[in-house]
């Protein structure tokens, strides 16, 4: 009887997720629908703010793709060198010289600041610099230093932002999916993110769901200033979603997938994926042990119970669990297809979910040890957290 109830409840949950949870699994929110037929005006001015810490191996590729944008307006770049020790600034300057674009690149020194997470402190440094300029740009492009852009991406992004009147438009860049670890975990990362923040709901002004993807974020500077600037979210570890929540109070925001921007960052081994997830997984739960217990129980109930009951239960419970397992796999297949993976891999989703559950537990353990939010030699998660304050940030 208990097995039947568990199996039936799992089926109801997956029916809801597939039918009524913002169509997250269908991958309908893509930048090709953001601005399909419009072009930005010739005089549009964008300033890209690129926080960079020890990115000498990829910064030239990233900046070169920005310098070569087929954009009818003007694109300037502000690189905030966040205490790099590998010559990131020198590599950036050499790239600008090679592209004959030295007049379009400004390099600022950044660094850690009390009460700020590192990336947000660097973004704030760039934003403060831009706000001090005599002529203000139409848009800011916050982008990571390990992202490469297709030549027409900025034009498409600005055109869509102008057509839709967005105060924030962000794109989930195409992550690398080449190593065994990447093929196993990267599509699931995108799947789980879209389940947590259905893009269609993010893009619906009537919905309270807000999020962003930090690799590519096009922001109206006056809206950010009106919201209190980046200082309003200075302690947020998940900075992009915090910025999405902050700016959705100012106007429409938009989040979608893209094939026109891709990550240069490789995650060749299991340990690399593990570190990426554990950095912020517990922060997503607002550092709450109760939320952690609920998340672990929920992952087990939603992802692990269906295949286990399909194999080990009898009668009605087994049939219900099998139907749930098939529905789960079907929902995951479009994401695998987007990343060029075999759709049969969808049946391994419960095992991948088990790994992500372990990453979340490890994230909580690292936080307890005072090593939460590890990023390039810094531990950025707060040691003492008031749940109320963190929830206001996110």
Task: List the defining traits of the structure above.
15 helices; single chain; globular; alpha/beta; eight-stranded mixed sheet; Spore Coat Polysaccharide Biosynthesis Protein SpsA, Chain A; 2 domains; 394 residues; two-stranded antiparallel ribbon; 14% strand
> What is the general shape?
globular
Strand count, sense and barrel status of the largest sheet are:
8 strands, mixed
Q: At CATH's second level, what is the architecture of the largest domain?
A: Alpha-Beta Complex
Span between termini: 41 Å
The helix count comes to 15
Average pLDDT figure: 93
| Class by SSE composition | alpha/beta
Residues in helices, as a percent range: 40-55%
């Amino acid at each position: 009887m208990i097995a039947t109830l568990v199996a039936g409840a799992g089926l109801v949950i997956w029916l809801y997720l597939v039918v009524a949870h913002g169509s997250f699994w269908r991958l309908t929110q893509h930048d090709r629908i953001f601005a399909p037929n419009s072009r930005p005006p010739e005089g549009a001015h964008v300033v890209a703010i690129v926080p960079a810490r020890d990115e000498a191996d990829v910064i030239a590729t990233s900046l070169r793709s920005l310098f070569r944008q087929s954009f009818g307006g003007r694109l300037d770049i502000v690189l905030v060198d966040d205490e790099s020790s590998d010559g990131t600034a020198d590599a950036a300057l050499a790239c600008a010289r090679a592209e004959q674009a030295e007049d379009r690149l400004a390099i600022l020194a950044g660094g850690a600041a009390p009460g700020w997470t590192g990336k947000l402190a660097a973004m704030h440094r760039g934003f403060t610099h831009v706000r001090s300029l005599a002529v203000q740009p139409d848009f800011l492009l916050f982008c990571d230093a390990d992202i490469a852009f297709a030549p027409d991406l900025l034009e498409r992004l600005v055109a869509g932002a102008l057509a839709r009147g967005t105060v924030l438009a962000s794109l989930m860049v195409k992550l690398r999916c080449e190593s065994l670890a990447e093929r196993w975990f990267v599509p699931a990362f995108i799947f789980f993110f879209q389940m947590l923040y259905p893009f269609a709901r993010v893009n619906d002004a009537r919905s309270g769901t807000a999020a962003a993807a930090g690799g590519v974020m096009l922001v109206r500077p006056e809206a950010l200033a009106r919201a209190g600037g980046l200082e309003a979210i200075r302690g947020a570890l998940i900075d992009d979603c915090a910025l999405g929540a902050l700016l959705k109070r100012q106007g429409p925001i938009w989040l979608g997938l893209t094939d026109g921007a891709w990550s240069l960052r490789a995650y060749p081994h299991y340990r690399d994926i593990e570190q990426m997830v554990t950095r912020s997984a517990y922060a997503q739960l607002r550092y709450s042990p109760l939320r952690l217990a609920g998340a672990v129980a929920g992952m087990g109930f939603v992802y692990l119970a269906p295949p286990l009951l399909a194999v080990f239960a009898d009668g009605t419970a087994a049939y219900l669990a099998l139907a749930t397992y098939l529905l789960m796999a079907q929902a995951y297949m479009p994401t695998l297809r987007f990343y060029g993976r075999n759709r049969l891999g969808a049946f391994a989703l419960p095992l991948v979910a088990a790994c992500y559950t372990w990453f979340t537990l490890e994230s909580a353990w690292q936080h307890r040890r005072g090593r939460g939010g590890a990023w390039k030699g810094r531990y950025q998660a707060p040691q003492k957290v008031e749940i109320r304050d963190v929830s206001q940030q996110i």
